[in-house]
Design a protein that fits this description.
Length: 303
């Protein structure tokens, strides 16, 4: 599978961002990509730096104008496209949504972000309802392979990656919008980025799948009265193989389109040498469905 990741900066113009993304899809296809993933909420500035009701005006239906534009690009270039949208599902009901368009332009799947953050500069709970599809995490068959999609904050949760892999995903895409708060970058920037990449590489290893994260780049903000600092989005989009090796990584500062050949046959090889799925104790994991386990310490159980 030729995998393309489009890392770009975004302006306030939906039309300009969409035009750029469609052009980059064509560039990636010309370079050998068969599946192309765009970054989280690519049609505008990241809207959640403050709680601002005006940002809801940017939401749209799925399928809708942006989905249709991506479908045309997918069909024209014969590639699968993963796109991330601010979805208006109904009056007062909004989601952070990823769509998968197959290589003929057909809508193959819709994933609505399940884990919704609420942190300084990332006030997503004000805007988005968690996805409610059943099962919550899954994958879809496309012309070039079985694709799973989670979105940004989902990337910190091993349960999400595990369930996506168990559904048959050969590659898990993470459209992403993550960066540094400018006054924290010098002190914490390296450790924050390292934790982010390490977490997703661990998903690749633990599940024996490819993992690809597409992040935005550039400074954005402030957006609204509650976001005085803005965000320096750190780019560094990357693809990791089932051993967790980074096959390619984009720049921290510049726009870039990565295209990497991913040998899907290696999934079988890795899983037979590191048979984590075989050795899972599914009979012992029931407490994972609880928020927290108030239980005696292990040594107390022995007494």
């Amino acid at each position: 599978m030729g995998v393309g990741l489009v890392q770009m900066s975004c302006s306030a113009s939906r039309d300009a961002n969409l035009e750029k993304a469609v052009a980059r899809i064509g560039d990636a296809a010309a370079a050998g990509a068969q599946v192309v993933c765009l970054q989280e909420l690519f049609t505008g500035h990241y809207p959640c730096q403050s709680e601002d009701h005006r940002q809801f005006d940017a939401a749209e239906a799925v399928p809708g104008p942006t989905t249709e534009a991506l479908a045309r690009a997918a069909s024209e270039h014969g590639v699968v496209v993963v796109g991330s949208l601010f979805e208006r599902r109904a009056a007062g009901l909004f989601h952070n949504t990823a769509v998968v368009l197959d290589a003929d332009g057909a809508l193959a799947g819709v994933y609505r972000k399940m884990h919704i953050p609420d942190d300084p500069g990332y006030y997503e709970k004000f805007y988005f309802t968690p996805g409610d599809a059943r099962p919550g995490f899954g994958s879809v068959a496309t012309r070039f392979g079985r694709v799973g999609v989670c979105v940004c904050w989902d990337q910190w949760f091993p349960e999400a990656a595990r369930l996506t892999a168990l559904s048959g995903a050969e590659i898990i895409f993470y459209p992403t919008a993550i960066g540094w708060l400018p006054d924290e970058r010098e002190a914490f920037g390296h450790s924050q980025h390292d934790a982010w990449e390490t977490m997703m590489r661990s998903h690749a290893i633990a599940n024996g799948v490819f993992v690809a994260a597409t992040n935005r780049v550039g400074h954005e903000g402030p957006v609204g009265d509650g976001a005085p600092r803005g965000v320096d989005f750190w780019g560094a989009s990357f693809i990791a193989d089932p051993n967790g090796r980074v096959l390619a990584r984009a720049d921290h500062e510049a726009e870039e389109t990565l295209v990497v050949e991913c040998d899907l046959a290696s999934i079988e090889t890795v899983r037979t040498h590191w048979p984590f799925l075989r050795d899972r104790r599914v009979d012992a994991y029931g407490d994972l469905t609880r928020r927290y386990v108030d239980a005696p310490r292990f040594d107390e159980r022995l007494s």
